[in-house]
Structure formats: C-alpha cells, structure tokens
Amino acid sequence: MFSLLTDSTFLTGLSFVCFVGMLLYFGVWGQITKALDARAEGIKTELEEARKLREEAQALLAQYQRKQRDAEEEAQEIVSQARHEAERLAAETKQKLDEQVTRRTALAEQKIAMAEAQAAKEVRDAATEVAVAAAAKVLAETSDDARQAALINQSLDQVRQRLV
User: Fold this and answer.
1) Do the beta carbons of residue 37 and residue 43 sit within 8 Å?
2) What total number of domains does the chain contain?
3) H or E element that contains 27
4) Residue-wise over 91-119: b if at least 16 C-beta within 10 A, else e?
5) What are the 10-residue block averages of pLDDT along the chain, 164 residues in total?
6) How far apart (Å, rounded) are the C-alpha atoms in residues 163 and 159?
7) How far apart are CA 114 and CA 121, in angstroms?
C-alpha cells in the first residue's frame, strides 16, 4: 500500500476525485453548470438574432430586386413611349413637309401662270403697236392726208377701247 502512495498516477487520480468531490460538496458544480447553461442560452439567442437578421436581409434583397425590376420595366416603358413619340413626330413632320411642298409648288405654278399671262399680254401689246404702226404706214402711203388722219384716229380709238 505504501507503494500506491508513491505512485504519481494514483496520486493524480486521487487528487482529481477529491477535487471533483469538493466541487460537488461546495456547490461549485451547480454554478459551473449554470454558467455553461447561461453561455449556451446566450449563444442560442445570438443564433436566433442572426437568423432574424438573415431573414430581414433576404427580405430587403427581394424588395430591392423587385424595385430594380420595376425600375427596369419603367425604363423600358419610357423608352418605348419615347420611340412611339419620335415615330409620331417624324410622321407628323413628314406630313407637314409634304403639305408645305404642295403649297409651294402650287404657289410656284401660280407665279409661272401669272408670268406667262404677263408675257402674253406684253407680246399682244407689242404686236398691237407693230400692227398699228404698220397700218398707219400703209394708210399713209395709200391715202390722202385727211382720210389718213380719220382712219388713224378711228383705229386708235378702237385699239384703246379694246385695251381698256
């Protein structure tokens, strides 16, 4: 038995058993288990809080993804509306341009017709003057002075009446 008291392994085991016995006797074991239970409860609370935060983060992510999709849809709608508006404005501008070209063409045709009428009038006036001068010359050469004067005056009166 003496040999057991000198064996270090035995003494270490005996010391451990005594230590555990003292812990049980003085109630330290209860305090240790309470501390461990409190620590486990704290970890459980932290895990629950982390789970809630994760759920909130996922909800926020889903909300922002919905907002992004809505914003993209709205942007597509705005682009589509702008495209339709541009097409409408282009068609409207083309129609107005066509109308303007038609009006200007009609105006140019009117001016051409007026110029043609003016030129025809000038040609008639010149032809009339030449005809009167020729008639006056022919009459001057073929008749006497009194008859010539009477014919010239009569012809001039007729020409004036027709021109006016």
Assistant:
1) no
2) 1
3) none
4) eeeeeeeeeeeeeeeeeeeeeeeeeeeee
5) 75 90 74 87 95 95 94 94 93 93 92 90 85 75 71 81 76
6) 6
7) 10
